[in-house]
Amino acid sequence: MLQIENLNKFYGSCQVLNNLNLEIARGEIFGLLGPNGAGKTTTINIICNLLKPDSGLVKINDIPCSKITKSLIGVAPQENLLYKNLSCEENLKFFAQIYGVPAEKIKAQIHATLRAVNLLDKAKKPIDTLSGGMQRRMNIAVAMIHHPKLLILDEPTTGLDIETRYEIWELIQNLSRGGMTILLTTHLLDEAQRLCQRIGILKAGTIIAQGTLSELRQRVQAKEIIILETPEREKAIARGQALGFTPRYYGQDLAFWLPEPLELKEIISHFEGIPLDCISRQCVQLEHIYLEVMMAHKSP
């Protein structure tokens, strides 16, 4: 559905995209992760034909990126693009006309779109009477009113409470099950882990890792991760290394990669003689992978 080949973009002498290559299959949710300044927004702007690359190729549905491909894309930006004094129905009608939806099809598409985002009962309600979660769903509805082939969701749950976040996650999953191809950018790693079939990690304009979660887990040579709370960290690190455990710090947390999962009593016995306040066990999560990939590509 989306093919990006050898994409480069400079702002003056600053290279923002560096030989970027990316492919998103039809019907998948692809998560694009990376720190601020990594090139995510520039990439989206090029896909949307709002910015021209210095070199490289972007294809959407096998069509080179141009004015023609704009109708194939729907974009829900981080900030809601809604007219708050207009109703849901009026907003969708306005954007449908902008996208060039034939007049005879607008009413049916508004109905179908509101049903897809579970806001059919709010059709006549002004936007400013809706909750934050409903407004975010409407923001997505606006992006899909013209039935795009590719839906771009930029930080779709930023600033939302956890209950509302779950509602948006369910909506995204339902859209994917309906065959929609989705490019998702997010700083919430649990969101990407939950929603995305494949994930790409972007740094300094280059994809430095990509694949399924299972494939990306190969970047962390651990079957299990344990977090230890102890007043004698140096002793714990020395003991762990002697046992073949790889120490890591995640923020202020001291962690060890275990080559094989162990029973809790085995872990405790391995650290006998070292005071342990708490032990927690985790499987390898996307946050561990992300930090490891970023550390491996740390600038000298």
Q: How would you sum up this structure, described in words?
A:
With about 300 residues, the chain is α/β, with parallel strands linked by helices. The chain has two domains: about 1-215, 3-Layer(aba) Sandwich (Rossmann fold); about 220-285, Alpha-Beta Plaits (2-Layer Sandwich), CATH 3.30.70. Helix content is about 35%, strand content about 25%. The protein has helices spanning about 40-45, 90-100, 105-115, 130-145, 160-175, 190-195, 215, 235-240, 265-270, 285-295; strands spanning about 1-10, 15-25, 30-35, 55-60, 65, 75, 150-155, 180-185, 200-205, 205-210, 225-230, 245-250, 255-260, 280. β4 (about 55-60) and β5 form a beta hairpin.
Give the key terms.
single chain, 300 residues, alpha/beta, Rossmann fold, Alpha-Beta Plaits, six-stranded mixed beta sheet, four-stranded antiparallel beta sheet, 27% strand, globular
